Amino acid sequence: MEENEVDFLIEGPQGNYICDRCVEGCYSLLKEYKEDEEKPLPKELEFLPTPQRIKEILDQYV
User: Fold this and answer.
1) Residue 9: other Cβ atoms inside 10 A
2) 33-61 pLDDT, tens per residue?
3) pTM of the predicted model over 0.90
4) What is the total count of domains within the chain?
5) How far is C-alpha 7 from the chain's CA centre?
6) What are the angstrom distances between the C-alpha of 56 and each of 38, 44, 50, 59?
7) What is the rounded distance in angstroms from the CA atom of residue 19 to the CA atom of residue 11?
8) Among 15, 18, 49, 59, which one has the highest count of C-beta atoms within 10 angstroms of its own C-beta?
């Protein structure tokens, strides 16, 4: 992408640049990721036994 194809460029600490379009794209991806993190667990995953409980059950057989 050429400099004249973007509205502005943001300079990083080491002289690297990122354009406003890339910043918007990254923001959208991060926002989507954050929303996915906040979703509740599906019902079938809510009642998973704890690791300690799994060990107790396995200890009965080993």
Assistant:
1) 14
2) 888 777 776 676 667 788 898 899 899 98
3) no
4) 1
5) 27
6) 31, 21, 10, 5
7) 9
8) 18
For residue 49, give both structure tokens: 């036994």
What is d(CA 42, CA 17) in angstroms, rounded to the nearest whole number? 41
CB burial of residue 6 (10 Å; 0-12, 13-18, 19+): middle
Cα distances (Å, whole numbers) of residue 6 to 13, 20, 23, 27: 20, 7, 11, 17
Q: 35-55: string of b/e by CB count within 10 Å (b at 16+)?
A: eeeeeeeeeeeeeeeeeeeee
**Identity of residue 15:** G
- Domain extent for 21: 3-59
